[in-house]
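Fold these two proteins, one after the other.
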Amino acid sequence: MQQRNFKLRQWIKVTCKDFASEGLGVCHVDSEVVKQHVKPHTIFVWGILPGETAIVEINNIKRKVVQAIVIRSEYAKKVLELQQLNLEKADPQSINLDCTTVANSYIMFWPQRLTWLIVDQYFSNASITQVTFESIKNSIASYAKKLSDDLNKEEFFSSEFVIKNLSKLRISSMCENFTICGGCKMLHIDYSEGVKFKKKWLQNHFIRDKIDYGFDRLKVFESPKKIHYRNHVQLHINKRKERGFYSPGTYTTVKFPQDGCYLFDQKVVDDSFPADLELVRCVRCRIDDHSNTSKIVELNSHQDKSQMFSVTVNYPKNNPVSITFPMTAFFQTNTSILPIWLEKIESLLSANNSEVLNVLELFSGFGFISQLIGQVRAVNSLGIDVLKTEDLGKIFLTDSKYEEIDTTNFISQYVQADLFQIDRWVKPVKKKISKFQCDTMIMNPPRAGFPLNSMKTFFDHVLGYSPTRIIYSSCNAATFSRDCANLKEWGYEIKDLSLFDFFPNTSHYEVLGMLEKVS
């Protein structure tokens, strides 16, 4: 059977079968439209829900993975109208009159967005070998009109997108940039329904890794702020001084909507945006919700690497802590949910009745977790991370009375080491860690998690013992599940599991689990 590949900017009719953990619809190409076998048959589509049929535009092709976006009804109507107008002015030399060659290669006519929906119908008669310019022009123009009429007849234009069989879960997206901006992926469903999908995706990861856990026990914590929650964004700027995010799969800056972006408080940024940065390619913005202030610098500039910024976290209660750290340093992007997350970790640590908790904190950064919980109860912590020791001293914490919090104990015990390259550690580092007898180990790794080889080397050749309790927090449910399955081999079992919606209206979320040594 003849086979062909997808091409960028082509339109195709698809039906959504499932909603994947990336926040994309898993869709199959409609066999009624495409007469020949296509590769691949499955497309991941932004903005579609299970059961819906839509006309989508291919916007990203990577190896065997094809992604697309649903098309807005207003945009589709304009394209089809322009298609007919452009054909009237088309140059005969721009059209290949060898119909067999065109049928085999599926060269798009004028413009490129003319779809397979039209080409498949036009070349369904394989016996045609030669046609005139006028017959091609007239036929394609008529099919463009027919397609427009058919879409109207089948009620594809009944909503803001070219979709029929609308899902009951679908709501009107509040952002006019939805699907054309690379920000939010789940503005087309109600927030509570989105959280249910995240719970389902987490459960699927556990099923894949054969982890037995009763998900009726899963605790779900919603974000207090559903919009304007991000305290860190990178904004792109085009030559017209328009600020925005990239369009999915491209390096084209999409201007923020007139009502402002829903991911972060755009007004705070706009009010303080420096005039000398209006034409730089990309800027970094840090925002503090507590004081409604922001700092904006050119990305990767000297100022970006040298300046500091302060964020206030409302924890402990009635005594918020202000943290000052470098602009380039990692910090959780949703400040509003951090107190809830920290309170949960605090409650998990309280299972240990020791007067002073000895905590080994892997991927610690500046010790954010142990340092803040140390304001509530006595914690003796040893942190391990790649953050340079001299940079650690630049970070400082102050309480609500503007008094600096003592961090000397954490700094004195901190170990600068790469947990992904344990085989390069020197003996004094390994000896220092093995001597630290911890009650609980906290892990908060990057999205890559803690790979099996590194984990095995750490437990067997560095630590030399198994902590009674491990508290593991991750923003990647896939690697969290994988690592928990590996820890199961060391005799650990999940005793508590929580989902924190750190990233509303996106497919991302934070998972927090407590594992105990049972065998």
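Now the second one:
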Amino acid sequence: MNHYINFKNKKAALDTFKLDDAKNSTVEDIIVAYEEEYDDCLTVDFTKYIVSELLKIDIDGHTREYAMNTIFSELDFVERICRDLDIEICDYPDLRDYQHDYINEANFIDEKED
């Protein structure tokens, strides 16, 4: 199930659907629209965004601890974006599944077979 950030009436919401009348946008544009209180109706596939951003983070060849610290600390873009849009991430625990899946699929130096 994909999650979408929908922006309408100067409010952002995280939904499992995209608004029919919304213009496809980017996460960055929705953050600007939210901060500037634009009247636009925008949507973005947040699931696709999360996956594409995770693929930019190279955790192969490191330790699992390094991966966890990297993805869930200062680079935790999922939490940062939700905070920027006043969306409570704790209400959407399955958003974290993408991050955990990415970590579980990595090849770590501390888990290589001898």
